[in-house]
Amino acid sequence: MTLPDRVARLLPGVTLCSTVSLAALGLARIEEAAFGRAWLETLVLAILLGVAIRTAWRPGARWKPGIDFSAKMLLEVAVVLLGASLSAATILAVGWELLLGIAVVVVVAILASYALGRAFGLSPRLAVLVACGNSICGNSAIAAVAPVVGAEGEDVAASIAFTAVLGVGVVLALPLLAPLLGLSAGQYGVLAGLTVYAVPQVLAATAPIGVLSVQVGTLVKLVRVLMLGPVVLALSLVAPRQGGARPPLSRLVPWFILGFLGLAALRSLGLVPAALLGPMAAAATALTVLAMAALGLGVDVRMVARSGGRVVGAAVASLLLLGAVSLGLIRALGVA
User: Which InterPro entries does this chain map to (predicted)?
Assistant: First the structure.
């Protein structure tokens, strides 16, 4: 397929996502004019508008390539660009105690979530998928773990369907907890990084709180995502006879995480011109809004009913447990 053909194939869906993004921006401006501030940020509005449209109308084959491209590739580019806002000083400020704590939270959450899944009557393999999806990085973890444990296609579909809906719910609801729990921007960033499913969704969940929350949340989330490699390796060792196979390295360490870390390293070394930092941050924000619209357009809330009550119960209980453990870590380490 030639480049013009690819562009033509993607254009309808990208245009639709852009239209939803502009509508979200317009609504946010109306909020600011009416109330003095936007109570619902542009990112959140883009998700809500996308979900509303998807619930009323299912985009056909003409729109799907561009929507998928916006939700994945453009969002991954936004994550890479965000690396320019992170320096070594921010990373060092986190401290080795928190880095170790993140690893402990992931391990505890996986074990406890697996036990909850089994208590809810899930099969061992489905319980593993839900546990890893909640504890590490949602759909990416499910996709990486599924071939290792030899999961059935219907188990993968059920767990991914629910995490798609629950992930959006977490992004929308989590910012409300910051004032209710009296969390500082840094503390909230840690909480978001430990509980939100995907790296890009951390941007949407932390943006309403502030820049510090975005930086801390993204860093914590990246450390959490990097736990996927050791977890998959451990599963491949304990379940070698279940028909599983080790996924490729690209699935364990996605390219955009390497890009994010590489750009952060360049920023720390002073190799990113200061004049580019503003435009890069603006581009990352614009692409994230567009991608959030695409994410909303890809979520059908009716999928929750089809995923089954036991999966719903196990996933929600697992997520609540993860949140409680994360808050405990924040209090125990005295995160400011």
Answer: UPF0324_pro (IPR018383)
Q: Which amino acid is at 119?
A: A
Burial state string for 30-69 with b = 16 or more CB within 10 A and e = fewer than 16? ebeeeeeebebbbbbbbbbbbbebbeeeebeeebbbbbeb
> Which residue in 311, 334, 276 sits closest to 113, CA to CA?
311
- What CA–CA distance (Å, rounded) separates 72 from 118? 32
* Average pLDDT score over residue span 26-41: 82
Q: pTM for this one?
A: 0.70
* DSSP label at residue 126: H
- Which are the contacts of 18, defined by CB distance < 8 A and separation ≥ 6? 290, 293
Q: Which two tokens stand for residue 14?
A: 């990208």
Residue 170's closest CA among 134, 132, 196?
196
C-alpha span between 242 and 148 (Å, rounded): 8
User: What's the full length of the chain, in residues?
Assistant: 336
Angle at 288 (CA atoms; ends 28, 82), nearest 5 degrees: 120
Which alpha helices (H) appear in 196-273, and where do they start and end?
A: 199-206, 211-226, 228-238, 249-252, 255-268
Please state, in angstroms and rounded to a whole number, the distance separating the CA atoms of residues 162 and 66: 23
The 10s digit of each residue's pLDDT in 270-302 is 899 989 988 998 898 899 889 878 878 887 766
Whether 293 contacts 24, CB under 8 Å: yes
